[in-house]
């Protein structure tokens, strides 16, 4: 797999992740996996109450991990519930935990034959991770995983608002430029 083809497999869109027709969407969950606000609340509302029923027996998930359920009423076949870190100052393992939840989510996607997966900006809302820094960690991690794997074929970030979309766009451009340098 050469570097150019990895970048071609990554894309950014602005929108609502609950409407995405992909094999799996990723939820920015908390460690209870029992729902919450932000994108978590939106995904549970759109998927229907069966999603919470499916999450209950999972027994929660540590920060940096992820677990998978069906998508129920969503267009997506699966929901991968990833638990990102709460941001403190960046010196408490936040980048490692953020990278870990992306890697685990991608592994689950591969294990469940997902060719297409969409991520929100994990940890960038309630968990207060500075968005440009989170974008750099997450894009680098995903590009690294895709460089060694044929699946998932495509990874899309669905950014909810324009500032998030801009931050991810500039981080993506920087990382591609770093690679060319
Ligand atoms: N589609 C795409 N992105 C969205 C959507 C949507 N429908 N709604 C919000 N976002 P957050 P976190 C963006 O707070 O920081 C929950 O209560 C949002 O603008 O959802 O990982 C959980 O239960 C932001 O850019 O997740 C946890 O307790 C990004 O999604 C906690 O929040 C993530 O914001 C997790 O916090």
Describe the structure.
It is a single chain. This protein has 181 residues and is an alpha/beta fold. The chain has one domain: Leucine Aminopeptidase, subunit E, domain 1 (3-Layer(aba) Sandwich), CATH 3.40.220. It is 42% helix and 18% strand. The protein is built from 6 helices and 6 strands; from the N terminus they run αββααββαβαβα. It has helices at residues 3-8, 38-47, 50-55, 94-111, 131-147, 162-180, and strands spanning 10-14, 24-29, 66-70, 78-83, 116-119, 154-159. A 6-stranded mixed β-sheet has the order 1-6-5-2-4-3, with helices on both faces. Helix 4 (94-111) packs across helix 5 (131-147) and helix 5 (131-147) crosses helix 6 (162-180). It is globular and about 50 Å long. The chain starts with a helix and ends with a helix. The mean pLDDT is 96. Ligand AR6 binds at residues 16-18, 28-30, 36-40, 42, 84, 120-127, 158, 160-161, 164. The site of ligand AR6 has 25 residues, from strand 2 and helix 2.
């Amino acid at each position: 797999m050469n570097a150019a083809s990895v970048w071609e497999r990554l894309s950014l869109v602005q929108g609502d992740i609950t409407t995405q027709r992909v094999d799996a969407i990723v939820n920015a969950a908390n460690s209870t996996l029992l729902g919450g606000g932000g994108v978590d609340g939106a995904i549970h509302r759109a998927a229907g109450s069966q999603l919470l029923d499916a999450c209950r027996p999972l027994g929660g998930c540590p920060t940096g991990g992820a677990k998978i359920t069906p998508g129920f009423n969503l267009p997506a076949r699966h929901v991968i519930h990833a638990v990102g870190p709460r941001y403190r100052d960046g010196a408490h393992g936040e980048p490692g935990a953020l990278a870990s939840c992306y890697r685990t989510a991608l592994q689950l996607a591969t294990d469940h034959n997902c060719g297409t997966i969409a991520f929100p900006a994990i940890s960038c809302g309630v968990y207060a991770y500075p968005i440009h820094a989170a974008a750099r960690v997450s894009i680098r991690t995903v590009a690294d995983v895709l460089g060694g794997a044929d699946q998932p074929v495509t990874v899309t970030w669905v950014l909810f608002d324009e500032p998030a979309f801009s931050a991810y766009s500039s981080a993506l451009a920087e990382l591609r430029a770093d690679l060319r340098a």
